[in-house]
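A.,

Following up on our hallway conversation. Structure tokens first:
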């Protein structure tokens, strides 16, 4: 079938194969030759300019896995760049990448890329890749299960990806799955990027914006519900010698440490994921980068614990640097780990409704008592595919009777083209606040109104006003300063 016949369709159907796949990065199977390559376009340095190298990308599936084969043809293989061998690391390498919009919601995406060295880098995208209003649009700590195989010869380098449908997530409607997809290749030697579909460089990170993805369909996807069980055991023994009371000898003091716990990840459906943790072990979490803080404000460190990564962007509810939910409030205090007895986490999408729920119980840790943390986040797509209305509720309840409750509502409306109107409001209710003002909306609330054109080419602008009450205190959030009223404006042309 010709390229025009395939990609002239509004939502081309991806071929389902029955032949076995030899994962070796060589693409020798007959079905690869039957598939038409995706028509690539130069994204930068000159949009739709002449491409210095040829790129051939093809995709098939077998109902359980998505297979992507790419030939990065290179006239001079000595120009191929591969500078790092560490997962989730990038250092000026050549790149092949694919971005999926699993629910075709034009807002959330999963970004997989690799290099000629075969490293795996995976990120989760939210807010259509835009970091406006302080949103954490790219979650670089997210990881999932997938495979990559690379080969290299005199024609360039070849990549073969195998990504489980269960790692991507999807909505199955009448035996059909609809997603968005973007492919791109970065050629470091030429500072050149090729992309499919032909996305113009009008936005920040335009080449990974879910709203610009090509819609595709899969038929015959076999719904799977993999269960991942990760147990751990921890043991240790130490002996120290202390001088006795009379000072005549040293006496041995032994300490034995033994602990056990587990994590479970299970796909309740193709689009709802349940995470369960018991006696959580965070020993293998990457340490925070050391930062010198010369300000009077706390540092907003990123979350790296895997339990909190699945669709973490769904829980984002930010007013610039102020966040209603900041997961590092759970299980951490002044840099010290607080034991987590257990917890559950549910994330996914049902029709046009995004759902996020979380509940965890921590142990006591001086000066904190044992606490329960709860979060419920809902976002409903409304008006058009780039707009939503949502709400959030958080609770922090201690066994000593202390409580902190937060409710919030937000909406992001795509008025026209790249113009968006964003409205957010929230109120906190804390037991430590005096009774006479505890429920005073003005003193315990925050609101923000933002009007902006989210583009980097042509005329763009951003205006917002923000007010924070003097007693506003999100118990599971992040807030640097209260009792303020501020505004911001920015005009530009690019």
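Then the amino acids I'd put at each of the 494 positions:
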């Amino acid at each position: 079938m010709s390229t025009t016949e395939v990609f002239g369709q509004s939502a081309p159907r991806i071929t389902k194969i029955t032949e076995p796949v030899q994962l070796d990065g060589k693409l020798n199977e007959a079905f690869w030759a039957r598939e038409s390559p995706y028509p690539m376009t130069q994204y930068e340095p000159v949009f739709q300019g002449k491409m210095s190298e040829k790129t051939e990308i093809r995709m098939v599936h077998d109902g359980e896995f998505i297979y992507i084969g790419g030939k990065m043809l290179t006239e001079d293989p000595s120009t191929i760049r591969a500078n790092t061998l560490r997962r989730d690391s990038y250092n000026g390498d050549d790149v092949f990448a694919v971005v999926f919009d699993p629910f075709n919601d034009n807002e959330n995406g999963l970004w997989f890329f690799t290099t000629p060295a075969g490293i795996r880098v995976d990120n989760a995208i939210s807010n259509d890749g835009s970091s406006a209003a302080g949103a954490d649009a790219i979650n670089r700590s997210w990881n999932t299960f997938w495979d990559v195989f690379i080969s290299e010869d005199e024609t360039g380098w070849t990549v073969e990806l195998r990504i489980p449908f269960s790692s991507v997530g999807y909505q199955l409607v009448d035996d059909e799955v609809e997603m968005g997809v973007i492919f791109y290749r970065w050629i470091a030697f030429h500072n050149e990027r090729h992309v499919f579909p032909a996305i113009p460089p009008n936005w920040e990170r335009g080449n990974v914006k879910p709203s610009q993805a090509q819609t595709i369909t899969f038929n015959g996807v076999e719904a799977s519900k993999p269960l991942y069980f990760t147990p751990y055991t921890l043991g240790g023994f130490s002996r120290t010698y202390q001088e006795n009371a009379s000072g005549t000898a040293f006496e041995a003091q032994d300490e034995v440490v033994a602990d056990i716990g587990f994590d479970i990840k299970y796909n309740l459906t193709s689009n709802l994921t349940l995470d369960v943790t018991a006696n959580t072990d965070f020993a293998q979490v990457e340490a925070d980068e050391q930062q010198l803080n010369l300000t009077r404000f706390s540092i907003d460190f990123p979350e790296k614990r895997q339990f909190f990564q699945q669709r973490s962007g769904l829980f984002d509810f930010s007013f610039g640097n102020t966040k209603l939910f900041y997961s590092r409030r759970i299980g951490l205090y002044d840099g010290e780990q607080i034991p987590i007895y257990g917890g559950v986490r549910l994330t996914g999408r049902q029709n046009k409704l995004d759902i996020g729920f979380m509940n965890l119980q921590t142990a006591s840790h001086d000066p904190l008592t044992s606490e329960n943390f709860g979060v419920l986040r809902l976002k409903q797509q409304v008006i058009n595919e780039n707009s939503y209305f949502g709400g959030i509720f958080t609770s922090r309840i201690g066994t000593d009777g202390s409580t902190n409750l937060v409710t919030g509502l937000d909406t992001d409306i795509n008025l026209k083209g790249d113009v968006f109107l964003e409205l957010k409001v929230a109120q906190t209710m804390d037991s430590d606040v005096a009774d006479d003002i505890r429920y005073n909306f003005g003193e315990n609330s925050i609101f923000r109104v933002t009007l902006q054109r989210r583009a980097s080419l042509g005329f763009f602008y951003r205006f917002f006003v923000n007010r924070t009450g003097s007693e506003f205190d999100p118990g599971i959030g992040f807030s640097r300063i209260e009792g303020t009223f501020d505004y911001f404006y920015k005009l530009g042309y690019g």
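Residues 3-219 form a domain with the Immunoglobulin-like fold (CATH 2.60.40.1190). Curious whether your intuition agrees with the design.

B.
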